[in-house]
């Protein structure tokens, strides 16, 4: 399996810098970014780190890469991905399909949420609430890089709070795949705020120590995330 770190620190810095440049208006929607060699020099990162950052921003729908033409800032009309079957997970093309990833999540995460609901402490609930507030703030501010990262943190905390070490190890072993599956729905701007309410309903069930409710709302959340990228799959939960 690949390096468990989902994104290297250098790539994270490049991501943050490019996103700040775009949000500042330095490159308006529809405009092209500088050539990769010049942009890598400006950001003081390797071209490999820059390509990884651009790949992530492309997944988020912030930019689009046109081979042979260059890299362009997504225009308003590019905000929503076309409906229909989702593409293969970009970082693992040819290894897992999107349906396989979401099926895996529907098997593992609802069970972890149910286990967590049975034993959550007030401190653990507080950590989940704080992480979800950070996720909601980043999403509303259209900081999509931070949104994906805090979404991962929220789900990762729930896995940890299941107190099943084997579940946690399996989930961490596929961390890059999980984060990629959480990035993809963010390209659907018209439905960007939906996960905030889904997390809040899940949190209410967790705070009530309701394992059936926690499992149900986690399954609904993952199913709707799949729907946001136009993916139909069999829920085996």
What does this protein structure show overall?
The protein has 237 residues and is mainly alpha-helical. It folds into 2 domains: 9-78, Winged helix-like DNA-binding domain superfamily/Winged helix DNA-binding domain (Arc Repressor Mutant, subunit A); 90-228, Up-down Bundle (Four Helix Bundle (Hemerythrin (Met), subunit A)), CATH 1.20.120.530. It has 10 helices and 2 strands. It has helices spanning 9-23, 36-43, 47-59, 98-119, 122-140, 144-161, 165-173, 175-183, 194-207, 211-228; strands at residues 63-66, 70-73. The protein has a two-stranded antiparallel sheet. A hairpin with a 3-residue loop joins strand 1 and strand 2 (70-73). The radius of gyration is 18 Å and the shape is elongated. Residues 1-5 and 81-88 have low confidence and may be disordered.
Lay out the secondary structure.
Elements: H1 9-23, H2 36-43, H3 47-59, E1 63-66, E2 70-73, H4 98-119, H5 122-140, H6 144-161, H7 165-173, H8 175-183, H9 194-207, H10 211-228
Antiparallel strand pairs: 1-2
The helix content, as a percent range, equals: 55-70%
Number of strands: 2
SS class: mainly alpha
Report the biggest beta sheet as strand number plus sense, adding barrel if it closes: 2 strands, antiparallel
Range of strand content: under 5%
User: What order do the SSEs take from the amino end to the carboxyl end, as H and E?
Assistant: HHHEEHHHHHHH
At the first level of CATH, what is the class of the largest domain? Mainly Alpha
Q: What name does CATH use for the topology of the largest domain? A: Four Helix Bundle (Hemerythrin (Met), subunit A)
Mean pLDDT: 85
How many separate domains?
2
Main sheet: which strands, in order across?
A: 1-2
């Amino acid at each position: 399996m690949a390096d468990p770190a989902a994104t290297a620190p250098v790539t994270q810095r490049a991501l943050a810098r490019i996103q700040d440049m775009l949000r500042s208006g330095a490159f308006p929607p529809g405009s092209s970014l500088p050539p990769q060699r010049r942009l890598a020099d400006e950001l003081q990162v390797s071209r490999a780190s820059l390509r990884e950052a651009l790949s992530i921003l492309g997944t988020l729908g912030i930019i689009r890469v046109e081979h042979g033409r260059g890299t362009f800032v997504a225009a308003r009309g590019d905000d929503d991905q076309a409906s229909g079957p989702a593409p293969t997970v970009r970082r693992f093309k040819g290894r897992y399909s999107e349906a396989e990833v979401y099926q895996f999540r529907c098997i593992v995460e609802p069970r972890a949420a149910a286990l967590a609901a049975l034993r959550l402490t007030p401190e653990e609930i507080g950590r989940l609430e704080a992480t979800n507030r950070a996720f909601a703030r980043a999403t509303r501010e259209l900081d999509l890089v931070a949104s994906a990262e805090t979404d991962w943190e929220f789900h990762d905390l729930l896995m940890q709070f299941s107190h099943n070490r084997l579940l946690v190890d399996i989930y961490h072993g596929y961390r890059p795949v999980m984060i990629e599956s959480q990035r993809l729905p963010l390209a659907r701007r018209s439905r960007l705020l939906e996960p905030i309410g889904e997390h809040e309903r899940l949190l209410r069930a967790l705070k009530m120590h309701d394992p059936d409710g926690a499992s149900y709302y986690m399954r609904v959340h993952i199913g709707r995330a799949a729907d946001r990228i136009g993916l139909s799959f069999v829920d085996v939960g």
